[in-house]
Structures are given as C-alpha cells and as structure tokens.
Amino acid sequence: MVAADSPARCQLQGINQYNGEFSCPWCLIKGETYWIDERRHKWIFPTKKVHQSRDQENFTSHLRELRDLLHNGNNNVTNVFGIKAPSKLILLPKFDIVHGFVFDYMHTCLLGVVRTLTCAWLDSKNHNFPFYIGHQEVEINCRINLCKFPVECQRILREIKDIKYWKAHEWKIWMILAVPLLNGILSQPYLKHFSNFVTAITILCKDVITRADLETSDNLIKQFCVVLPDLYDSSYCSFNVHLVSHSVDCVKNWGPLWAYSLFQFENYNGVLTNSFSGTTEVGLQIAKKLIIAENVCFIKCFFFKFNGKKLLFINNGKAEILSEVT
Ligand SMILES: [Zn+2]
C-alpha cells in the first residue's frame, strides 16, 4: 500500500498532475476546462458520469503504448490516458500500481472538500450566492466558543478569523460540528448536502464497517457529487470531489479511512524535522536521534536498585519506590 497526497501520488504513479487530463489514479475520467473568466481557467471533473476504472492490466497496457509511441519517434506524445512515465513501483513484486494507492481523507476531505466549501460559504466574493454566510461570522464564533471539548481533545477549534491557520485536526472537528453548528445559518439544501458528505465520511471512518454501511456511504457520496454543480457551480467539481467518489472502493480494499490516513505519517514528519539541524548528514543525524529516543524509552521502563536499598521504577521520568531491598 502507498499513502501519499495528490502531488506526490501523481509522481509516484507516473501519471499527469491533478490539474491535467486523465489524472485520476483510479479511473479514466478525462476532465475538462472550466473558464473562470476570459483569461483564467481551471481543470474540473464532471460528477454526473461514471467512468471506466483503471486496473493493473489497462495501466500497464497504456504504459506499453506510451513506450511504443515514443520508440517510434512520436515525440509530441506526452501521455497515454494520463500515464506519462514508467513508475519504479511497477517493479515491486505483487504491488498493484492502481489499487496499491490509497485514498487519503486528511488531504482530500478535510483539507480539500471541507475547506473549499467552508471558505466558499464565508468568502465575501460569494455574497450574491444563497450559500453565503460570511455576514454571520459573529454568530458562528459564538457557537464555536460555546462548544465543550473533551479533555482528551488535544486541539480545540479556533474562531473563524483564524480559519486560514486551521490545522487538519481543526478541519476534522469542524467537519463533525459544522452541521449542528450552522443549523439556522446555512440554508437547508446546502446544510443537507454537506450533511450527506459528513455522514458518508464518518461511516467510512468507523472501526467496523458493514456492507450495508458501504452501500449507505456510496449512495450519500453519489448524491453529494451529482447535486454539487447544481447547488454551487461546475467550478466546484474539483479533483478532490472526484476522488471522494473512489473512497468507498478504497475502504472495500483496505479498511477504514483512518487506518491509512496521512495524519499519522505527517505527525511523524514533525518528529523527523525536529531531529536534525543544518544540512550536513541529515540522515545520520535523524538516525542518531531516533536511536537515542528509543533507548530513553527503554530506560524509562527499567527497574534498578537505588542506594542498594530501594527498588525504583522509572516511568515517564518519575521515580517510584516499589519496595525496600534487603
Ligand atoms: Zn476517478
């Protein structure tokens, strides 16, 4: 299994970037240009059609086709169905170059769909749209401040004025709280639409997911994707929205979304970046720090004699006298 965000995944799989044609890692949707104005445009992925899936067989066949075209001097060809380079991962025994890549709900849902829609609701540029709630920011902040979070919750939700600094954990809290919190603020069709998305993703994050759960989630996601361009605009049919339509298949293959989300890996990135200074022998510095950290953990849970009289247990840096040694 390979878990990566979209920019990294495109490179690892050897396919077009997410803002190009045929860039979905799991299907052959082409996408199309959406003109924002006369000069600016973006690449969108229409939500109302089902597209042929990629699999190991058609992926390697398209890669071979690309190789043959380039071999025959067709230097203008840049890709075949989005495949533009041979991924080294193809050489990994038993690795499925299509389904070996997993859906990352941290980037796709929390930092993707949830953030995009929330920012659209609050952006004053959208003041003419029925989903605009930026003028209700004070009321939203009041409701956020009334929320009581469990003591286990390491990060609480900051106010809307800090929204551009919200971390993925805050977007996760917001995703869960937004529907009750915006009741009476965001108009019902939009609230219901977002609620479908939240329910679907929450189901896919359960510890135990039944076939009925998968079916419910699949239906909710289909509804969410199909209705999105009518409620908002086709410009909201982003790459992330399209990827959400593959989330249920990923859960069928690999289990709940939390099990391979990038939360855990990115948390560890913080540990790694704090394990070196400067640019000299970075790998060696990290290795040394990790070995020291592992040994400290071992010492923390080690019994030893103190003054030849007392048996101590060191736990998290605190010494506890367990018994007198005679
Ligand atoms: Zn796709």
Automatic annotation (TrEMBL):
The entry's protein name is DUF4218 domain-containing protein
